[in-house]
Specification:
With about 160 residues, the chain is an alpha+beta fold. It has one domain. It contains three helices and seven strands; from the N terminus they run E-E-E-E-H-H-E-E-H-E. Helix 3 links the parallel strand 6 and strand 7.
Amino acid sequence: MTGAKEEMSPRDILSEPLVGWRAWHVVYENSLPVLVSWSLNTAWPARRKLEAACEQHGPRPHRDHDCGIHAFKSRDDALAYAGCLPYEGLSFVRAMEGRACAAVGRVSLWGRVVAHRGGYRAQFAYPYELFLIDGDQGIARDLARRYAVEVSAEPGRLAA
């Protein structure tokens, strides 16, 4: 870490998860569905937390940087984000067996969490529940098994 050491207050560290909203690509790897971050080449691990990584600040998001695992405060913001960014340019997604669909859902965030306009950046995250966009019951079932979370392929089941 370069520069002055950033002071952290006890309110920056969450032991209980905060819930935000995200969008993911659902792609196949070894015939299994995998959640991939919408705009980065990051595959989300199954049944274990995703930890942030920054070359400058390590795993803890810094207030004056854009590092950390991003989440929106609202479902509508996550859906709008998913609608404005194409996936064709992501080398990781292209290298997989194929994109199955998209997912939007709630994500648990904890550790060091930085709140900002419209959302959060966290040290740790894990999917809480998923809603598939253009997915089917088979993909929903496979994702639910893999990540041990509720997954719905029915539009009406997406929580507000």
